[in-house]
Design brief:
Structural class: alpha/beta
Low-confidence stretches: none
Number of domains: 2
CATH architecture of the largest domain: 3-Layer(aba) Sandwich
Strand order of the largest sheet: 1-7-6-5-4-2-3
Radius of gyration: 20 Å
Order of helices and strands: HHEHEHHEHEHEHEEHHHEEHEEH
CATH superfamily of the largest domain: Type I PLP-dependent aspartate aminotransferase-like (Major domain)
Strand content: 15-25%
Helix content: 25-40%
Number of helices: 13
Oligomer: single chain
Mean pLDDT: 97
CATH class of the largest domain: Alpha Beta
CATH topology of the largest domain: Aspartate Aminotransferase, domain 2
Largest sheet: 7 strands, mixed
Amino acid sequence: MKRGFASDNNSGIHPEILAAISAANAGHEVGYGGDPHTEMAISRFKQEFGEQTDVYFVFNGTGANVLSLSTLTHSFHSVICAETAHIQVDECGAPEKFTGSKLLPVATVKGKITPEGIAGYLHGFDFEHHSQPGIVSISQVTELGTVYSVSEIRAITTLAHQYGLFVHMDGARLANAAVALNLPFRAFTVDAGIDVLSFGGTKNGMMLGEAVLFFNPELAKNAKYLRKQSMQLFSKMRFVSAQFLAYFNDELWKRNAAYSNRMARLLEQEVRKIPVIQLTQEVEANGVFAIVPPEIIPQLQEKYFFYMWDERRSEVRWMTSFDTQEEDIYNFTALIKSLV
């Protein structure tokens, strides 16, 4: 398939990640995380986020979110999230199925939820007829490609903790957010009051595997059992751990994310030259959202596949990746110009 703009999931594996997998393939190692690669990878996460961090590797992003939420909830709890959140829209009800908790969607401002939006659900405490608010979940980067500032995150965590709620961050594109903010990971996660983080790498050059990080080990006392029950425990865990070692080595995560963010800005720049295209969101990470004349969309998708975002208003989503090439963008925008 030609490189398109459908998803950073569609990209391949970064050569340095692939080499790390191959290197880890020599000989036998103890399974289920009892290997040196996993020990070193956990240590590396502690360097990034603090020694108190408890780390659990899982297969994928949905698994990371489910493990995060299920560890901190009972079935009588509710999870407050954006109406556009991945856990609400794109996980086939998995968070509700496996946690038993009710998701409470909040209207967003540029993809972000606000303390004011959350406050509408902060009632019914200690009332047995009402699901008990238990967690606020935010996505960083948001599903609309925008990025929460540190102050926005702190405002949410402060409010949530005031009412006894935990805060989860879906960090499927956390590296892109770190580059956009020009901050280390911990500055807008643990230091900003986040309790549990789904740390993603698949969208930024890894083959598979994510990590769930609990910033208070007391919160994670049941995580290992729930990981097994939710079918997220790797037997050959070293192949995920080796990827994370390569990911952190020489800041590969940062190089990849900086590049994909830059490609998104280039795409934005070229699209702005086409009067009939209307950008709908600020380009802060590696996503570009735009309204496109509906009659040309099928022809564009034949050559450069991408997804519709809102068919009602002909809004599309274009994602860039660590392996997007400048020629892809120039050829794509030239095709748009030729069709309009």
